[in-house]
TrEMBL record, chain A:
Biased composition annotated in UniProt, kind: Polar residues: 15-28
Signal peptide stretch: none
rRNA processing as UniProt keyword: yes
Taxonomy of the source species: Eukaryota, Metazoa, Chordata, Craniata, Vertebrata
Source species of the chain: Gallus gallus (Chicken)
Listed name of the protein: DDB1- and CUL4-associated factor 13
């Protein structure tokens, strides 16, 4: 460990370290006395040095009191530091090798270093680092940068994070370009859509002229078109296995089609056709069994193999506009009829369960795919109502933002959000637990949006509208598409967290909330705000000027429910 | 009888025909008489009189007057009361009387409702078992979708192909062609040859081959590394020694060969001759090359260069010299050149490298080569070998590798010929563990080193403080719209900046407006008594960014202003009351004290830069000198005059910064209950600047993770591992909730419209 040969003390280099020992040569070319003129040893324990050789009689033994004896003696075994010999002493011309601590050295000799010195060679334990901590394994690895997380070294954390959050919010708004593409090809308004249960890139759509088209979303092309019905295609759904799909139309038929396009020389014709007595207005397939349900005058539940329904469920005599199977508890069904009610059914017992009557008609409903008892209804009174099917007396949440009738609703597969399509030519995204939308999508050319779907990977939204187009949107407007590098991902998560953390700060809130709206919707919103305010004021005044208790306070949730019928 | 009468009356009232009216009246009269007589208590049975002609004549003298009336059982029983013979009948009849009639069946609607109620209770109970799962998911810090990792099932090619049939003429033609050539189209998809070849190799053999290949690869890489290492050695001395030793070896070899296999030696000699011829033809050692020319230039001044040149010339001479042929009976040898080098390895090195399984019978350890003593002369080196030494080292190394590989090849061939010899097996076996151990060791090392960085200390950063799970949905009434919808579109950063600044101005306008109000107020206050309703701006607690920044909670600068209302109309009485009420506390003095305190607090503090011990003696009990203090205590500029210095009854807080206020939160956001909580939340940094990598990842983990291109299926009971366990609790929950609901709803519907 010790190197032979002379080395001048001025050229010595020491490393700060812990652990292994390196040698420091302190052998001067001079006599021991001269050596002490340039290199001196101090030790806190050493003041009364008796055991060491006489050559080490400390030149300024009382001076030991001046040395700060270091509070952290036990922390590091040894610390050797170079020190300008300002603190005086007889041999202060050169450098001083100050050795502090040496707690465990309380031996009979009183000192460790003199032995080394006596051998004209000194072995000094020096701190050193483990190469594993700083040497890369391969050159492709990132350099490991040791970092001191002492908060004193990184001040202003809130201010800095605030600025980062502000920037992230601004960038989010700048990059918010949700519109991806428009699928055109239909020759009439798009009336209904269906997702392929097994393929993300496939989507089906039915138009008002009875045409059904199947689209490839990655290529953004129509891959198949077929004339399914005369008149509207009222509803369509894919079989759970994805091999076939069903359509119902104005021509009072239910048709089952193959998902694959017909082969060479084959004709495009349905696998099965069921002729009904009345018009079917909607259809939905069971999530696990070969059973589907249609609605019209009544809710019919069909076995795929039979031409007559397994059972018909009626309650009241109005036409039913939509029927949906519960995706989790698959025997449950929900339907909404034009006599303003929502009816729940149980397929096992083939009986209706309960009926809620709202102020206005419900157009569609959709079950939450992650919460078995939650469903959302799209109402004519511009609102959406989220119900817990066990407590129907009041909705869990009223979602208001649309300015015209809501025509369709679809849940995100994560069950955290849903998208709604409205007659006011816009699509809105609502968090399930919020009363207002987090996003509104519109374009100049998009007319009344009739149908909307959230894709099964929860990344995109499809909406079909009156002006014959299907539009593809990002569910998260500013999301970057494509593969993200891990660092990009980390940055994205961090930004997201920052936005969340500082969301209540006025500047950030203001920027994050800003949305552009077409004038028609903007004006209508304003108008409705005024109307609502007026109504509220009137109610307040009435309450103020009438006998206490005669004008009860009705909560917003209860206001829209007329009755619950057992 | 009274019953009868009433019944008769009811019947009578029912008829309205005029003809019968008279008769009716008569009957009533009769009945009245009877009733009256009954009242007297005398029981009298009276036979009905037949007063007129009637179509219904009864032989028992029963009139038909009560034809339309109801028959009452008690009436029938009356006459048989006395007779004991009829008592059985009587009993029976009385029993019949006690029996109640079966109720009418429920109406269809009612029945349906009952069924519905029961069904609803049942299904809501069934659905209720999801309650814990739903709550758990709502509370979850992170949800990863899809819940169930789907297994990508690749349909076997055979299946795909068998399902497909040629349809178009072109396809059919191609299919036909394929059939002709007997290409397998459907099931196994392998030609017979392929099948045979597949079957030929057993698993064991495949393993062995693989091991062999592995070994070969490792060896190759080992030698490559070695060659590279050796090539890098710059020491001339080393190379010289190496060359010499090689020469010596070759010489020895040759001598050995001469003794053992003279034919081979002769062949070798011939070869050498060949080399000589080549050398003569070439200009290799004639001082004509680039290097030689450069040497020639240098030779004048450099002894070394001269020496080198001479050496080369000597080499040329040697090479071109004719070799004496001593052995006429030499036989052609089939030993390849490569083998020459590979066999030229001393056995010592083999022994030395015993530890390394790769080195069994292989070239010597590189570490040993420098140890060869240098003192031996190099004069007696055969020319031919010398010439071989001229080849580049790399080539030599390559040849070694080739030799090794060839060795393997040979081995394999031998095995194929012999079948599987047991010795080879054992050899393989002895070799293999070494491989594995080496590989494993390497793997372990990498593993360990991989683990090391991961084991770093994790800072105890509580994530829970950051994310407060919102279980209950916020109140509808409190909620404001999430979006602020505008007519103009924000597309660039400039727009957003403008948006921010616009907001800022809007924010600023408000305080300015307040400010303009204030002077007016002040003027008034200057004139008259203190304003009754004037309140300090600080009363409303503001969560200021500044206070958060400074890291300490800002104390309320001044409490609410005590207001002394002096009303003139109230007169002496009221004043008396007030003074009585506030007798204990001296409000005005308190206020003055508050104000003084606020003034003191607002004064700028001097900056102390005095460092003890610098330039003078330091230690406990020693104070820095006054001179030093004077020098390093920096006095601040005097603060501008306070706005409220002439307003004795007002404290104006000048701490509030309008510019900062635009960035501050003025209301406590929803889930927080105290402003301290919120400040704490804001003060905890999230970024990697302040947190370790692990903590940073933990803190910034997104709430919902989805994977691109993966279909998210609705949740099902299989997805939830606890579902089977929780079903019981779930049903319990549902039982708790559902019946209540059921009761409520069952009470109501009668009133409601159906």
């Amino acid at each position: 460990m010790t190197d032979p040969g002379p080395a001048s003390p001025a050229k010595r280099i020491l490393t700060r370290s812990s652990g292994c020992s390196t040698s420091v040569d302190t052998t001067p070319p001079l006599s021991p006395a001269a050596r002490f003129s340039s290199c001196t040893w101090r030790s806190t324990e050493r003041t009364g040095d008796a055991g060491g050789p006489t050559a080490h009689a400390w030149p300024w033994a009382p001076g030991a009191a001046l040395i700060p004896s270091g509070g952290d003696l036990g922390a590091e075994p040894l610390r050797v530091s170079r020190d300008c010999a300002e603190s005086g002493g007889p041999g202060s011309s050169g450098h001083v090798w100050r050795k502090e601590a040496a707690v465990g050295r309380r031996g009979g000799s009183g000192c460790a270093c003199p032995c080394a010195c006596s051998a004209a060679r000194m072995r000094v334990k020096v701190l050193s680092r483990n190469p594993d901590d700083y040497v890369r394994e391969t050159k492709l690895d990132l350099q490991r940068v040791p970092r001191n997380y002492d908060p004193a070294l990184h001040p202003f954390e809130v201010a800095r994070e605030y600025v980062r959050a502000l920037n992230a919010t601004k960038l989010e708004r700048v990059f918010a370009k949700p519109f991806l593409s428009s699928l055109d090809g239909h020759r009439d308004g798009v009336n209904c859509m269906a997702k392929h249960p097994k393929s993300l890139s496939t989507v089906l759509s039915g138009a008002c002229d009875g045409e059904v088209r199947i689209w490839n979303l990655t290529k953004r092309q129509c891959i198949r078109a077929l004339q399914a019905h005369e008149g509207f295609v009222r509803g369509m759904c894919a079989r759970f296995c994805g091999t076939s799909f069903f359509t119902v139309g104005d021509d009072k038929t239910v048709k089952q089609w193959k998902m694959e396009s017909p082969g060479y020389g084959e004709e495009e014709e349905p696998i099965h056709t069921i002729l009904g007595k009345t018009v079917y207005t909607g259809i939905d397939h069971h999530w696990k069994d070969a059973v589907f349900a249609t609605c019209g005058q009544q809710v019919d539940i069909w076995d795929e193999q039979r031409t007559s329904p397994m059972c018909s469920l009626t309650w009241g005599f109005d036409s039913i506009s939509s029927v949906k199977f519960n995706p989790i508890e698959t025997y449950l069904l929900g339907s909404c009829a034009s006599d303003r009610n929502i009816v729940l059914y149980d397929m096992r017992q083939s009986t209706p369960l309960k009926k809620v009557i709202l102020n206005m008609r419900t157009n569609t409903l959709c079950w939450n795919p992650m919460e078995a008892f939650i469903f959302t209804a799209a109402n004519e009174d511009y609102n959406l109502y989220t119900f817990d099917m066990r407590f129907l007396t009041s909705p869990v949440m009223v979602h208001m933002d649309h300015v015209s009738a809501v025509l369709d609703v679809d849940y995100s597969p994560t069950g955290k959000e849903f998208v709604s399509a409205s007659f006011d030519k816009s699509v809105r995204i609502f968090p399930v637990d919020k009363g207002h939308s987090r996003e509104v999508y519109h374009t100049k050319r998009m007319q009344h949006v009739i149908t909307v779907k959230w894709t099964s990977d929860s990344r995109y939204i499809l909406c079909g509208s009156d002006e014959m187009n299907i539009r593809l949107w990002k569910a998260n407007a500013s999301e970057k598409l494509g593969v993200l590098a891990p660092r990009e991902k980390a940055a994205m998560n961090y930004n997201q967290k920052l936005k969340e953390k500082f969301q209540h700060h006025p500047q950030i809130k203001r920027i994050a909330r800003h949305r552009h709206l077409p004038k028609s919707i903007y004006c209508q919103i304003k108008e409705q705000r005024i109307m609502r305010e007026a109504r509220r004021r009137k109610e307040l005044n009435r309450r103020k000027h009438s006998k206490p208790g005669s004008v009860p306070v009705v909560s917003e949730k209860k206001k829209h429910i007329v009755a619950v019928v057992q | 009888m009274a019953e009868e009468w009433l019944g008769a009356e009811a019947a009578g009232s029912g008829s309205e025909e005029e003809e019968e009216e008279q008769e009716d009246g008569e009957r009533r009269h009769q009945q009245l008489l009877e009733a009256v007589s009954a009242l007297t208590g005398r029981k009298r049975r009276k036979l009905a009189e037949r007063s007129e002609a009637s179509a219904q004549v009864s032989e028992f003298n029963v009139s038909c007057k009560g034809a339309g009336e109801k028959l009452v059982l008690s009436e029938l029983l009356q006459p048989i009361r006395a007779r004991s013979a009829l008592s059985g009948v009587k009993k029976e009849l009385s029993r019949v009387k006690q029996k109640k009639a079966v109720e009418l069946p429920l109406s269809k609607e009612e029945a349906e409702r009952v069924v519905r109620e029961a069904a609803y209770a049942k299904s809501s109970k069934d659905v209720g078992k999801w309650q814990p799962v739903v709550l758990q998911n709502r509370r979850a810090e992170q949800l990863v979708f899809p819940l169930k990792e789907e297994i990508v099932a690749v349909a076997p090619l055979e299946q795909v192909v068998s399902a497909w049939k040629p349809r178009t003429p072109l396809e059919q033609e191609i299919f036909g062609l394929l059939h002709k050539t007997q290409q397998p189209i459907t099931d196994p998809l392998l030609t017979p040859q392929e099948k045979a070849s597949l079957q030929a190799m057993s698993l064991e053999e495949a393993k062995r081959r693989r091991a062999e290949l592995q070994k070969a690869r490792v060896l190759q890489s080992y030698y490559e590394a070695k060659a590279r290492r050796e090539k890098k050695i710059k020491s001339k001395k080393y190379h010289r020694v190496l060359k010499k030793s090689k020469r010596r070896k070759a010489l020895k070899e040759f001598e050995m060969l001469q003794k053992s296999d003279p034919e081979a030696a002769l062949a070798k000699l011939e070869e050498l001759d060949q080399l000589r011829m080549e050398e003569r033809m070439s200009l290799k050692h004639q001082n004509k090359g680039k290097w030689a020319r450069s040497r020639a230039i240098m030779a004048k001044y450099d002894l070394e260069a001269r020496k080198a040149m001479q050496e080369q010339l000597a080499r040329n001479k040697e090479l071109t010299q004719k070799v004496r042929v001593e052995l006429p009976e030499e036989e052609p040898a089939d030993v390849p050149e490569e083998d020459l080098t590979s066999t030229a390895i001393p056995p010592v090195s083999v022994g030395a490298s015993r530890a390394n399984p790769w080195m069994l019978g292989k070239p010597s350890d590189p570490a040993q080569e420098p140890d060869v003593p240098e003192g031996l002369g190099d004069a007696a080196v055969p020319v031919a070998v010398e010439s071989k030494e001229e080849m580049s080292e790399e080539e030599e190394e390559l040849s070694e590798e080739e030799a090794l590989l060839q060795d393997f090849q040979q081995k394999r061939q031998a095995r194929q010929q012999q079948g599987e010899g047991p010795e080879q097996h054992s050899e393989e076996l002895t070799v293999l563990p070494g491989v594995h151990s080496v590989i494993e060791q390497g793997a372990d090392e990498t593993e360990v080193s991989e683990q090391l960085p991961g084991d770093g200390p994790i800072h105890p950063v509580s994530v829970e403080e950051q994310v407060s799970p919102v279980i209950e949905l916020p109140l509808q009434a409190q909620e404001e719209p999430l979006l602020s919808e505008q007519l103009h579109r924000v597309q660039t950063m400039e727009d957003i900046e403008a948006l921010a600044s616009e907001e800022l101005t809007a924010e600023q306008e408000k305080p300015v407006a307040v400010g303009t109000e204030k002077p007016a107020c002040r003027q008034e206050e200057g004139k008259a008594a203190p304003k009754p309703a004037k309140k300090p701006t600080t009363k409303k607690k503001i969560i200021s960014l500044q206070s958060v920044l400074s890291g300490k909670l800002q104390e309320a600068q001044c409490p609410s202003l005590p207001v002394v209302v002096v009303e003139e109309e109230g007169g002496f009485d009221q004043r008396g009351v007030i003074t009585e009420a506030f007798a204990g506390d001296d409000v005005v003095a308190d206020f003055n004290r508050e104000k003084r305190k606020a003034e003191q607090a607002a004064k700028p503090q001097p900056l102390n830069l005095v460092l003890p011990g610098w330039g003078e003696w330091g230690g406990t009990g020693l104070k820095p000198s006054n001179k030093k203090i004077k020098r390093f205590l920096i006095k601040p500029a005097p603060a501008p005059p306070r706005k409220d210095q002439h307003l004795p009854h007002v404290i104006i807080n000048e701490q509030r910064n309008i510019h900062a206020a635009a960035h501050q939160v003025s209301e406590l956001p929803f889930p927080f209950e105290k402003h301290q909580q919120f400040e704490q939340c804001i003060r905890t940094p999230v970024g990697s600047t302040w947190n370790t990598q692990r903590a940073f990842q933990k803190l910034t983990a997104p709430r919902v993770v989805t994977r691109a291109g993966h279909i998210i299926q609705p949740i099902s009971a299989e997805d939830v591992p606890s579902m089977a366990a929780t079903t019981d609790t779930g049903t319990k929950l549902a039982l708790q909730t559902a019946p209540e609901q059921h009761k409520q709803s069952s009470r109501r519907p009668r009133k409601r419209a159906r």
